[in-house]
Amino acid sequence: MNVTTELDRRFRDAAAAENLLDVGFDVVDSPIGPLLVAATSRGLCRVWFKPDPEQQLDSLARTFGPRVLRSHASVEGAHRQLDEYFGGRRESFELDVDLRVAAPFARHVLEELSRVPYGQTTTYGALAARVGAPSAARAVGTVMNRNPIPIVLPCHRVVGANGSLTGYAGGLDVKERLLRLEGAML
Amino acid sequence: MSAMAAIPPFERFYLEQREIVLGFLRKRLARDAAEDAFQETFLRALRAYDRLEHGEHLRAWVLTIAARIAIDTGCRTRPTAHELPELQVVDGRPAYAEIEHLADRLPPTERAAVVLRYAYDLAYDDIATALGSSPEAARQAASSGIRRLRAQTESPPGGTS
Question: Which of A29-43, A117-131, B130-144 has the lowest mean pLDDT?
């Protein structure tokens, strides 16, 4: 028997409202393609560029617990702010993030990353210096590569020492597009 | 020995079971009551989900929850007492609670079949759907479960013979 859209939404909203979820997620549209956005009760925990629920839900369940449910209410604030960002109406995100699974070094780097201003770029080496580990540019690169919350934690603003874009989980074209959106000099 | 099935993310479990749960509730309850019971079934499943120890028999598990809610809603359609000659209602506990308790020691498939048949009055077709087996296999599982329960009741563990 088919579950109507309304009945389905009622259940999902009730589950989120009762705080029964380890993770609520939704797939949202953006100018750079669909994004899978996920949040725990502590805050935003994942953004994926290429939604692949089959694999990504397993990853969320392993990391945060099995009560993973699609629920727009859980990511409504993040979705709105992302829309504003892509529309050029927002330069910084006001969202709690859940970095509990990041190792201490990665968390430190990601916190420092969140301070890199809109429209500016920095380098892996400079970011390494800012966390007090100037020789750890390569390790910083690895942290950027594994950034669980891209766009909101702006790893697209980190480039190579020679100004090259180097790499990006969403693809170099997306990295360039985000930097152009922000008006960063390339 | 094969490993127990892993617990799937709730989303996958919900998508796999929701039509069957709604169909089951619609057979027993009026439309609005069935929809309320549907929501309550999955909310209860969600509350218990992180305490599951494995992902086996999830369909039987969620139908057990749905059946209990349908009974609590007070619209039970068929009596079952005549089918339960060996299993009495004790101390005012409802039959389903007693049967679930007694069936705890049965192997999982037999337990699910016994509970769904005798505590929740599901037809063998529904139990087969829940267990992913044929109605005949469901009937056999319920029947061998009942035989095992009777044997256990006649010689309780630790009792003298």
Answer: B130-144
Note whether B152 and B105 are within 8 A (CB).
Answer: yes
pLDDT tens per residue across span B1-15:
457 788 999 999 999
Domains A5-86 and A104-181 share a fold: no
Q: How far apart are CA B135 and CA B127, in angstroms?
A: 7
* Residues on chain B touching A67 (C-beta within 8 angstroms): 10, 46, 49-50
CATH architecture, domain A104-181: Orthogonal Bundle (1.10)
Check: CATH 3.30.450 for A5-86?
no
Q: Residue A101: pLDDT above 60?
A: yes
Chain B CA closest to residue A63: B9
User: What are chain B's domains?
Assistant: 1-77 (1.10.1740.10), 80-156 (1.10.10.10)
Nearest to A68 by CA among A101, A40, A97: A40
Which strand ranges, in their side-by-side order, compose the sheet holding A43-48? A43-48, A35-40, A23-28, A68-70
pLDDT digits (tens, 9 = 90+) for B89-136: 444 555 667 777 778 788 888 888 888 888 777 888 888 887 888 899
Q: Where are the domains of chain A?
A: 5-86, 104-181
Query: Among residues A37, A109, A155, A179, which one is catalytic?
Result: A155
CB contact under 8 A, A14 and B43: yes
Please list every residue in chain A whose beta carbon sits closer than 8 Å to the beta carbon of residue B12: 57
> Of all helices (H) and strands (E), which one includes residue A158?
strand A158-159
| Contact by Cβ (8 Å): B57, B112 | yes
Nearest-CA distance from B52 to chain A in Å? 10
Question: Hey, what are B60's tokens?
Answer: 């039987």
Instruction: Supply the pLDDT for residue A186.
Output: 64
- Interface of chain A against chain B, CB under 8 Å? 1-3, 7-8, 10-11, 14-15, 18, 20-22, 53, 57-58, 60-61, 65-70
B11, B53, B62, best to mutate vs chain A, most A CBs in 10 Å: B11
